[in-house]
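Predict structure. Input: Cytochrome c oxidase accessory protein CcoG, 466 residues.
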Amino acid sequence: MKTMETAPIFLYEKQRKIYPRSVQGWFSRWRWIMVWLTQALFYGLPWLPWNGRQAVLFDLAARRFFIFDLVLYPQDFIYLTGLLVLSAYGLFFFTAVAGRLWCGYACPQTVYTEIFLWVEHRFEGERGARMKLDAAPWNWNKLWRKTGKHATWLVIGLWTGFSFVGYFTPIRALWAEAFTLGFGPWEWFWVNFYGLATYGNAGFLREQVCKYMCPYARFQSAMFDRDTLIISYDTARGEPRGPRGRGADLAASGLGSCVDCGLCVQACPVGIDIRQGLQYECIACTACIDACDHMMEKLRYPRGLIRYATENALAQQLGRARMAERILRPRVLVYGLVLLAIAAAFTASLALRSPVRVDVVRDRSTLARIVGKGEVENIYRLQLMNATERPQRYAISIDGLAQARIVDTAGIDVAPAEARWVSLAVRMAPEAAAVAGPGAHAFRFRVGVEGQPMLVAEKSTFVIPR
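Output follows.
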């Protein structure tokens, strides 16, 4: 009996390298505007001087975070939480309106991939030339082009890592250390780690980060509906596809507007065919729109065979005005109102934030004791945090504790953007202690700039022994 031989089944396909075609057009210009804006912001902020220091500095060693005129402490972590919530709702809002705008224009993966592809084009040429170069045997031409490309990628990556560390270590001091290779172990690690991560993600992984590593691609469908603007191929206008001459009569040929040139697929950085409909891999970079519009112009057909549209607009052949009306639907309005409320609360909280922070810690070694004249004394340690960049003298008083006083009422000087621990003794007259009775009694420390209204009230307790 003969046995049948079966072919092996491979569960994992080797990753096919994608060679994106460079395109020019309206959306391409906007992508490059965003590249310049985001990189000018990222690379430039650490070098911007402000009040005698750099404008944005997260000084982890001193536990100070400087953002222009703001001086934040670890106790202000709530503002980071608010910023993250604000960013999340902003992402929900813009995704519900127009899909993956963040991915297509401002995501660091997209931005650095665009930069690295530009470098690749300069060294290796357009799509066809790059494919031929990769297939060719190694020679001098291939060696210098590949070496030059990778060397430039590494420089960009390391400069990115250097700029990233410059947000945590004063960048001018870091720049001086770079010439002597005097980085500390922390700086060495993060400059190289972040630089090599940029080099690997933008130079090699590229679309694989968007398709397999980024969680946004997986849950974006929860924020989409049939009235979300997405990159869409107009099937009713484009089908059936087929080649034809320039200016050919579509009605006579029985063909749609799509000439099946494949430029939309060649321009796509993730290698999908947008004509197959909405796909989670699409990062909404709009390269396919520019490529298709260019071909439509050459054929003297109307632009917009691939365009921003909604599924309902394509199915019902809705015009732009009607499509825009349907964008303002309940989901978008709710996201927008919540986003405005969070932004208003965040802004108001920052504007009304006190310029001084106070932490009160009881002296555990001396809970309560009886001192001269029978007075009851409690010792406290106060941390005064000056959240301004001017020296301040603070006055401290107590509230809510009858016949109690601070032993030393002299003002306390705190340097700009510094925190200072001070010890205070609070005493209560014996007759007042007898009336209050033994136990813990709540009161408040009040702290303010000397000669001005009190700014902060911090709760504590005064212990009267039995």
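Residues 151 and 157 are 10 Å apart (CA to CA).
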